[in-house]
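Figure caption, in words: inputs first, then the predicted bound structure.
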Amino acid sequence: MIKFDLHTHTTYSDGGLLPEELLLRAVEKGVDYLAITDHDTLDGVLAAVDHLSTRSSSQDLLPVCLIPGIELSTTWCNKDIHVLGLDLSLHSLTLNQLIEEQKKKREIRARLMADKLEKALLKPIFDEVVALAAGAPITRSHFAKWLINNGYASDYGKVFQKYLSKGKTGYVAPQWCSLADAIQAIQAAGGVAVLAHPLGYALSPKWVRRLVVDFKNAGGDGLEVSNCQLSPADRQKLANYAKEYQLLASVGSDFHHPMPWIELGRNLWLPDDLMPIWCRFEFVEKL
Ligand code: AMP
Ligand code: MN
Ligand code: MN
Ligand code: MN
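Bound structure (manganese (II) ion present):
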């Protein structure tokens, strides 16, 4: 059985492993096809490609196929919605322009978030968060890490609840690109666009359906149906949406850091009768 994991992060966004460490872990876990999908950047993929190119001799080659990917942040009905781009070219002008715009938006938001938190906590924060991000686009996870390191909360869940979610001290509403902009840029780069974790936005069933419909109407290709923590009932729910709206099915761990309950390639089965997204990957021969 060929194993795919099509949603993962590295230190080039808010993940904990370097691209080469992630590739090695994927091999350890028996993943055959790994997509690196950092938030609003292709830099982790570029670093992974560089790393793989240094492994030139046959004993050195890693038995894993890297799929270039990205996770774009979009704003839909005032909500943050994530769109994965998979199997895309790294050199598309349209996609790289969108990435540049998102990067500027992240920089502006990070400055505003730091201002709010600095006023509330009476401490300089910005430079230390920039250092924690180490050149990666600054995400709320980097603020979360700073707040935990400095004793303001004990874990990621609590720190988001207390400081970083809508309405809290450190929250600044982002204005990311639209769903359609993200989908078009991904497709302009030859990739397929997948709606990430459709049940992960705390939306009522009515709103999930609205989101799926708008995603489909905007030209989206697939839904992320399988994630290691999703129950069989939730997978079936997503499978039903995929069938009803003729969307392809994707699978991904959304791995950020090694932790007991999320692992590369683990428990990513798909319900029956779905067309997998990899049928659209150019290089995957008939499996
Ligand atoms: P941003 O794109 O900067 O708004 O940051 C969003 C990132 O923060 C997501 O990709 C997650 O990795 C992380 N995140 C969001 N909500 C939570 C949460 N409740 N607990 C832990 N991490 C979260
Ligand atoms: Mn993240
Ligand atoms: Mn996401
Ligand atoms: Mn993700």
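Residues 14, 39, 73, 80, 139-141, 156-157, 160, 256 surround adenosine monophosphate (ligand 1) (CB under 6 Å).
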